[in-house]
């Protein structure tokens, strides 16, 4: 089973994430600090959050994973923006 | 339960909350004791911008001589000016009223006060609601010794009515955003304006370099600025209002004579008549009703947004908080998690900023790089006849992460859109530098400031 | 080898390439046969914007009556106008010259032509270089039957010299960006202006809704627009220039009389005198020298940037490509990989866009959502007396990904900064909607258009 990714934390304590990713993380009950960001400086984008959720779903729920057991998490309709060709 | 949500106050915080709550299908009421639109639409953001535009057109007509356009005698019909400004206010407040109707929001006319945590009284009727949003705003702070009579000694509301004739000598007590906006208006209208400020710098909160550039331009335009100065008392005499000014540093006092004195020394939260105690809502010593990231007060179903919830007292902060409160009540995953709240002084040039000042960034322990691009090197600024100012970018040295953007110049407030989005997106100076900006635009100066961070601006030498 | 890089042409493409190459430590020469700054600074972007500003000030003075400001007789000193405009050009081209010096760029005066793939002749001297950058730009396209004499029948260069008196009747042949900018200037200066366009719509390439809104405002301001119309021939007679116009649809012909005719039917790449054949560089049928993402032509050490490299013929595209070529030559990982290149018509209101139009997005197979916010609902636009226009956002329906932004309105070009960065960052409409935009600004209309995509704009009803 995949291990929890090690997420770099910034010295200023800020978790870099675009606004839509922050909102989606709240909606899905995801702790952004646990999400591996794919952008520069570890910036979290929407697809990072969805990938995190999908990764977590592939693993049987464990108590150590708040994501999968978050009570409010609905079955996510996961948007995945792609840059236009 | 009469309503799902009852909003108290129809300023920008309140009306945004009410409309969003209605959009999300809730039964909404909004109580307002004065005029829909609050301070912002009636006696704040909007009428000041109308007057500023009018004043700037007077200045523009003067500068038109540079390119050969001259005019005969210029006349200003002050009654028409006030009427035009009032017309815009009416149109906008009427618009909010229409939006209330269209969104089926019950508009309760009168002062709201809590009976208990689930009941509010408006006029002689009481209403129950599942949630309450307190959006009661703020009012001008008072200054002992200078009693506002809205004729000779005015606060921001009185200053909005341009007198006829325009005062020859104007004193503005307080060198903050509101003080400078009015000073700029009156200066353009022909008043001799002096601004006094208690602190060593005007526009507290803005970047020191930006403030310096801004103050230089204001001074060049004829506004006299005296910092570390306070006004002790004012007395009306036959030849004008005698104001005792005092140097904060030396204690030296002198009396100067003015025709109008504007007291613009800040604003304080407004909770009078609201009787929040009955609901058990916590109020701070300074009168604020603090809220968490979901805009909840200490009482879980009572929310607080806008000026009454805390600083900065700005309309767009109130709007954001209003939307968040409404969405949270509707069960949405909203939060007031903004990286930065922009600030603007709508003078000409404008002073606009978002994010950390250089000093704030340093104080927070960041290793900082900056890049500055002067508008004197911008082709677009030249064609607009407005080359005072610059764009300054504050960046985290190691990561290139954008921390703050500070702009003095024409349309600076419009350029903030990019800067604000960049901060929220966690953009780097490189992201901005690699984005094509249309030529010739003022936005190119934002790009060049980002390039300057890397010592690669094109239109200046990078040292 | 005399130089690491020899740049041919000192327009925006060429001078950006030269300066960046020098910043990166290369030995650089730049050959120019006319004036440093190219079309853009001398007879393009900059002087048009100067004239547009002057024209808009005339219009603004007229609108000032709305708020009570009136003027006596208005006079326009045309010689001074032309001189002011020329002064800005001189300042900017002088600035580029100074930057060349400061960056130690050798400025070769004269026409450059290739001797072989490694040697270029300028005047009577030959120079060798490791790489070459072709940045020779473009020139106005000609129209048979309308011979430009720069007096009665002018191209964009002739139109830049405002005649005294201003022509009473002006015909603009071509309803593109350049045509409309001049039409707007002459209209504000007092000419009766007609624009004819061969195609069914003006401003080809812009979003259809935006063009409609734009054309409506131009028409309201007095510019007559006739689409699907062409000009066959022009003849100077005692009472003016007789121009034969023909309806493209019906073939119907008629003759109309004008005092000045502007031919603005596009531009074509310029390679005359360059003798690229000697270097083996490929030139297309239409005269372009195409380049790859690193700006390399078919000959690996010869680069091509700007108008001569292909459409769109815009200064900021030339600049970007110039920077890319210089960085690639210096061994940096640069590429012209822009998601979108913005376009602007600098009239009042401006028409500005970046990214895909609604139709383009559909043609590419996107499932599209749009959101539009009218400036008539913007408080800031009201205070600026400019409420014509809107912000329209084109978004991919399923992912919310921003595809294009189309703006008609004041300062539209300044608002493009946010839109352009958003496209480059792969932002969604939600990212924009969640970002606090200062109040009251035009940028709030960008936010509201993003909200409108989700049927949640606040200041309009969302249908
Ligand atoms: C001159 C001036 C210029 C300004 N310019 C700007 C600017 O350019 N940009 C900017 O962002 N901000 C500006 N501001 C600040 C801005 O106006 C405020 O931040 C904003 O109005 C706060 O909104 P709000 O909804 O919190 O409160 P308010 O706008 O103060 O609205 C509160 C409303 O609640 C009502 N109310 C209060 N108590 C009760 C009660 N018990 N029952 C019923 N109704 C009640 C009041 O009548 C009022 O209508 C300016 C302010 C001033 C004074
Ligand atoms: C009226 C008008 C308004 C415009 N407004 C805008 C606008 O607002 N925004 C915008 O983005 N674009 C605008 N453009 C387009 C813009 O001017 C061009 O896209 C831009 O100038 C292209 O830059 P360039 O470096 O490719 O070429 P150019 O600017 O054309 O420069 C090429 C240079 O190369 C020199 N040259 C050519 N051949 C040789 C040779 N053999 N030897 C030596 N030197 C040579 C020329 O003398 C010239 O100086 C406008 C154009 C016009 C005509």
From TrEMBL, chains B, C:
It comes from the Bacteria. The keyword RNA-binding does not apply. SUPFAM superfamilies: FAD/NAD(P)-binding domain, FAD/NAD-linked reductases, dimerisation (C-terminal) domain. Its EC number is 1.8.1.4. It catalyses: N(6)-[(R)-dihydrolipoyl]-L-lysyl-[protein] + NAD(+) = N(6)-[(R)-lipoyl]-L-lysyl-[protein] + NADH + H(+). Its cofactor is FAD. Residues 341-449 form the Pyridine nucleotide-disulphide oxidoreductase dimerisation domain. It is an enzyme of class 1 (oxidoreductase). Keywords: Disulfide bond, FAD, Flavoprotein, NAD, Oxidoreductase, Redox-active center. One of its GO terms (molecular function) is dihydrolipoyl dehydrogenase (NADH) activity. Binds 1 FAD per subunit. Residues 3-322 form the FAD/NAD(P)-binding domain. Pfam families: Pyr_redox_2, Pyr_redox_dim. Gene3D superfamilies: 3.30.390.30, FAD/NAD(P)-binding domain. Belongs to the class-I pyridine nucleotide-disulfide oxidoreductase family. The active site is a redox-active disulfide bond. This is Dihydrolipoyl dehydrogenase. It comes from Deinococcus oregonensis.
